[in-house]
Amino acid sequence: MGLTMKFIKVLEPATLTKRYQRFLADVETADGSASTIHCPNTGAMTGCAEPGMRVWMSASDNPKRKYRYTWELAQSSAGHMICVNTQQANKIVGEALADGVIPQLEGLHELQAEQKYGYDNRRIDWLGLDKHAQKVFIEVKSVTLAEHNQGYFPDTVSQRATQHLRSLMDMVNDGHRAVVLYVVLHSAIEQVTAASQLDPNYAQMCIEAAKVGVEFYALGCHISPSEITATTTLPVIPVSSSAKS
């Protein structure tokens, strides 16, 4: 088992009414009252935001916030747990790297989060040094799109994710290591692949990135209303070269 990311406060349950305008959701709380909460997820959230789903939300003590609650978790009709707050992924990865949950990234040191890099001065989620003193650039991606036990990324067209791959390829060409780390935040998912059916350009870029040496790993998690624990690595299934066709 990996290190556990505990929620700072006890999450409060509710029932989802609808998600809209990307960053908002309406829920019904246990006492039957309606409330609007913040949705910290910019993706399509396919299968993660169905009306009637049981959800959990965290409360903020910041009086300046327009919406006090933030949507954290959802439970599918089949009982699978999903973390919809993509901001949690970097925290989970930081703890997993420190605990050596990912064998291929074990022993990284001088870890730093949110560092500027590359020719366009973008930010990398994690930067560290391996045992050979080689820089390792780690781009973290949350995976919640599930079909049976298969996870897909992205859940909609993402030019930003494709650009991240190009930047990682630049780092490999400059002599560094570069990693795409998929954080699996849906308990039904047992393996991950690029969603060529939704974003063929991203899928094709994954093929090109792998050819030059970008590394692809997936991190499985145990999800509950009290904590999220990084548990093990999961297979990343290569996309066929015909993905773009």
Automatic annotation (TrEMBL):
It comes from the Bacteria. Residues 18-84 form the SfsA N-terminal OB domain. It holds the Pfam family SfsA_N. Belongs to the SfsA family. CDD domains: SfsA-like_bacterial. Residues 88-226 form the Sugar fermentation stimulation protein C-terminal domain. The lineage of its organism: Bacteria, Pseudomonadati, Pseudomonadota, Gammaproteobacteria, Alteromonadales. This is Sugar fermentation stimulation protein homolog. InterPro entries: SfsA, SfsA_C, SfsA_N. It comes from Pseudidiomarina maritima. GO terms for molecular function: DNA binding.
